[in-house]
Design brief:
5 helices; flat; mainly alpha
Length: 100
């Protein structure tokens, strides 16, 4: 028997995806990508607890890609404006730069 835990409404992705997409300046030809994003969010939201890890590993990255294609990520917005994303120093890069 699979027991699923009750989730708080704030954990669901579909409302967040819908809101993010609504805030974008999209063209009618973007509708297919919007539907794909909503579908991925719905699949993740409706997944039973036993499939949460699967969704996080395989479906969530696909949702992120679709949202980035639509311009719903900070890096995508910078690219769309013709700029270069800011590269943050990684902890390893910082350690490599330390001269002993």
């Amino acid at each position: 028997m699979v027991v699923s835990r009750a989730r708080d409404a704030s954990e669901f992705l579909l409302p967040a995806v819908t809101g993010a997409v609504a805030a974008l300046d999209l063209e009618p030809e973007d509708e297919a990508m919007v539907k794909i994003a909503r579908h991925y969010a719905r699949v993740i939201d409706q997944a039973p607890a036993s499939k949460e890890a699967y969704c996080a590993r395989w479906i969530l990255p696909e949702l992120v890609k679709v949202l980035a294609e639509l311009g719903a990520s900070p890096a995508a917005r910078v690219r769309m404006k013709g700029g270069k994303p800011v590269e943050l120093d990684s902890p390893i890069r910082k350690l490599k730069s330390i001269s002993l």
